[in-house]
Amino acid sequence: MFIALFWFSIANSQLPSYQKSNIANKQRLIGINFSPDICYRTLKIGPGSTNREYIKQYRDDNEIPKSGFTTGINLCFNLTHQFGIETGIQFSKKGYANKFIELRFLVPEPDMPERIKYIYHIHFIDIPIKANFMFGHKRTRFITSAGLVTNIFIKETVTSIEVYPDRTEKRTQPSDLGYNRFSVSPLISFGLDYEINSKMHFRFEPTFKYGILKVNNFKTYLYTIGCNMGFYWTSK
Questions:
Q1: Burial, 75: exposed, middle or buried (Cβ in 10 Å; 0-12, 13-18, 19+)?
Q2: Which of 163, 234, 146, 227 minimizes the C-alpha distance to 195?
Q3: For the domain that residue 48 is a member of, what is the CATH number?
Q4: pLDDT value at residue 2
Q5: If you count Cβ atoms within 10 Å of the first and of the last residue's Cβ in the chain, which end, N or C, has fewer?
Q6: DSSP code at position 182
């Protein structure tokens, strides 16, 4: 035990002053984050589902990614200078969209749109738990993370964009496609942690999350690619 304490005191004395501060005083960090995301989904079907195969093919040909975001608060526990655990509570808007559909009528209809598009916004409360691994001994360090996010479904809204000869109308309204209450998404990220001063850090982390549980009965699996940005303050 005395040998271990002696070794730690020698190793700690060789660290830069700001790095000693990280180990001694930055065991807890409170942060806020915002991530602009690119959102989409994958569809899966069981064997022998001919109708669903047709629907899946049609949707894959006509649906596209949409923009979304994730934001919230975080709590980090830095167990060592290189390793920590992070959790928090987030609000996220995921989903997908479809391409513009050209509307053609055998008999001309008065005041009908020429094209229409739908954007599906799926809202969640996210609870992440992840492990952070940090590398380097300077103010700017590399950070990589891996973990799981519990997704709690809140609601879905659908935005319709209708294009008329003389105008464009946009409406958003609630929708109910039978979404499951819970889902789980593994996540991975890799980026930079910058120590602004002795009390504050900034992180930039490209992040990928993929839902491994279907969110509705059509076996829809949501995923996002984002650029997470966060500010963290130390808390003893």
A1: middle
A2: 234
A3: 2.40.160.20
A4: 32
A5: N
A6: E
